[in-house]
Amino acid sequence: MLKQGLELKQTQKLSPLQIQTIKLIELPIQELEQRIKDELEDNPVLDEPQPSERDDDEPKDISLDEIGDDDSIPAYRLKVNNYGKDERPQYNTFSVRESFTQSLLNQLGFRSLSRHEYAVAAFIIGSLDNDGYLRRDIDSLVDDLDFRANIKTDAAEVERMLGIIQEFDPVGVGARDLRECLLLQLKAERQTPEVVNARTLLSDYFQDFSNKHFQKIMTRMGIGEEELKAATARILKLNPHPGGQVDDSYSDQAQQIVPDFVLTIENGEMMLTMPRFNIPEIKVNRKYAGILNDTTSSSPRAQREAASFVKQKLDSAKWFVEALKQRHNTLRSTMQAIIDYQHDYFLDGDEANLRPMVLKDIAEKTGFDISTISRVVNSKYIETHFGIYPLKYFFSEGLENEDGEEVSTRELKKALRECVDAEDKHKPLTDDQLVVEMNKRGYKVARRTIAKYREQLDIPKARLRKEL
After folding, report:
1. Which fold would CATH assign to domain 398-465?
2. Checking DSSP bridges between strand 261-266 and strand 381-384, what pairing results, if any?
3. pTM beyond 0.70
4. Three-state DSSP class for 333?
5. pLDDT digit string (tens) for 281-292?
């Protein structure tokens, strides 16, 4: 039996301005600049005045504030000038490497392959993980090529194309496991005695080598301790993550990351600026302003429709400019709150001074929602006198030390790393012993915490850290 009834629900609907602001807050500075250019191109009522226009007797554009007295179009001051003394400052940037996949495809293009072979090889490249490994078995790739790409092939051809990819830079790419990755690198080197021993170690005694069974290896290989040390040292110099080593020299397309904020210290005072951010003084094209101001109720219908169109575009422009202002204020307030919260850290960049901090802490200081803080933090960078950092870097959980003070997990990890670096590598510290060492330094941590942080730092277990 069907029943009908009324139900009241309270919902919150975001205004166009709020939606616009949220979208702009998420953008890093370079994408924001492109967004502003797009708006100037897409909105026909807007002109960005050129310097020469300001000296003309008859300016082509007029300020938005000069248009009408319509209360439905609120007047805003449209310029937020945050430049320093130099209006064209030199922005520090740092490179982000070219796409790993793209660099391999570029190398593939230099090989003399048929269109079919190229398609098979390109599919294999697209199947590599971020470290440069092929984690799929050959038969699965054959099936995927058939069903997903409609490319008919067989295991022999896939193996052959994979062999070509394994000749590419960085050396070791296309390996199916760590042993193959290291062996590919050793194969490409001059075959000195230590390299030959290293290849034998990996090809015939990889499991024993991984488990540090050194005496067993020396007996079976018939070599002495010095020879084993030399072979081991050669292996340790190899790169287990070739996918992370694509060099910028490949890159005509290398991206440039531009910091959204710059923090300097002048006379002991911290100065925060956003030198790249500037809302242009947007002016309305005089032709469109005339259409809007000259329209009356007795105007022809076409003229009124034109005026309605201009008004719609004018509203859009004002929302956009106000959203830019709100983005600027939100980002600046958030960054200032982070600097205030981490004041001691920003003085010298010492990680020991980095306080535990989560999004909620900054939300409470600024009055913004946690979701807003998250949007600000995402994909934004700050330049300091000790380096360029993503804003996410400054956030971490915390634990108490022996004095009951809260310390950041980053400080704990730094202390743990120092304990491991200082240990006797002939007798590495177990997790229980690391707990004792951390307690000596004033950090109360449980064994499971040590194990978790050790894994996050890619520090092997004690047995695997043992050296000859």
Report:
1. Arc Repressor Mutant, subunit A (1.10.10)
2. parallel
3. no
4. helix
5. 556 666 776 776
